Amino acid sequence: MKIAVTGSTGLIGAALVRSLRADGHEVLRLVRRTPDGPDEVEWDPVRQYVDAAGLAGCEAVVHLAGAAVAGRRWTAAYRKEIRDSRVLGTAALAEALTSLDTPPKVLVSGSAIGYYGDTGDRWVDESAPPGDGFLPSVCVAWEEAAAPAEEAGIRTVFARTGLVMAREGGAWAKLIPLFRAGLGGRLGDGRQYMSFIALHDEVAALRFLIDTESVSGPVNLTAPSPVTNREMTAAMSRVLGRPALLPVPAPALRVALGGAADEVLAGQRVRPARLLEAGFPFAFPTPATALRSIL
Questions:
Q1: Number of domains in the chain
Q2: CA-to-CA distance for 128 and 160, rounded, in angstroms?
Q3: What are the CB-based long-range contacts (under 8 Å, 24+) for 131-134?
């Protein structure tokens, strides 16, 4: 199968490209520069430019591009970058796909469980409405931007990804060294839920969504057993064999992260109802198994 991927240098995108190519699929990577070879297609999400001709013959597109949410202070300028990189890029890509003589059969478009906002200890699945705040508003606009593809009859799936557990990048790439040094601990009061997914299962779920013709619309990409931050901290302590005695108080997080701290201290207790209903087999459904998979 010929599959195009945006965000192919990111944590999830790079792993997905490796997995697809290992199984013999032809992968086109959308890049924001002059292409170096026949497996690259130029695009510029901010300028809303896509070399649509380069996507001819693609049967599937996986759209994962977007400015990083973690690791940066959320200034007004960076909030705009977070939003524009997702909304403008999705709109440009959706329009480009509809212009093709033979559009792809499926667009798997990235989204996030930030859609639900802070749910406390309340379970939510794909039927839940959006929450309040910056990230929910971004996710709503992000998904709405794919409307041209849906209206053109392209099966469109919104992959609402949770906290991806991986050694190569993301939050756990920073947390694991801290815990190994005995400096790990809960964040805030530790009661916020963490809806996680192992990188292996994230990639497998994206491929499952490409292949499963009966699934469209929003799909939560999270393990079926979300845990509180306190429980995740305890699991990391057990698996790594190190104490986790140094909690990070909420005021310190706000000083360090600015507006992003409220998202760290918030939580989502998310159920991947549509994946479970479709029969997706999670390889690493618990914190301990997910941690061992990345270690």
A1: 1
A2: 12
A3: 133/262, 134/74, 134/79, 134/259, 134/263
Question: What mean pLDDT do residues 191-208 have?
Answer: 96
CATH of the domain at 128: 3.40.50.720
* Stretch (H or E) spanning 115: none
Q: Is the pLDDT of residue 4 over 60?
A: yes
pLDDT at 256 over 60: no
Confidence class for position 74, pLDDT limits 50, 70, 90: confident
Q: Residue 264 is part of which domain span?
A: 2-294
Rg, the chain, Cα only:
19
Q: Cα angle vertex 188, ends 184, 193, to 5°?
A: 90
What are the start-end ranges of the H helices in the chain? 11-22, 76-98, 134-144, 147-151, 171-180, 199-211, 229-240, 250-257, 260-265, 273-278, 287-294
Can you tell me the distance from the alpha carbon of 288 to that of 295, in angstroms, rounded to the nearest whole number?
Answer: 11
Torsion of CA 105, 106, 107, 111, to 10 degrees: 170
Q: 114-157, pLDDT tens digit by residue?
A: 999 999 999 999 999 999 999 999 999 999 999 999 999 999 99
Spatial distance between the Cα atoms of 206 and 108, rounded to a whole number of angstroms: 8
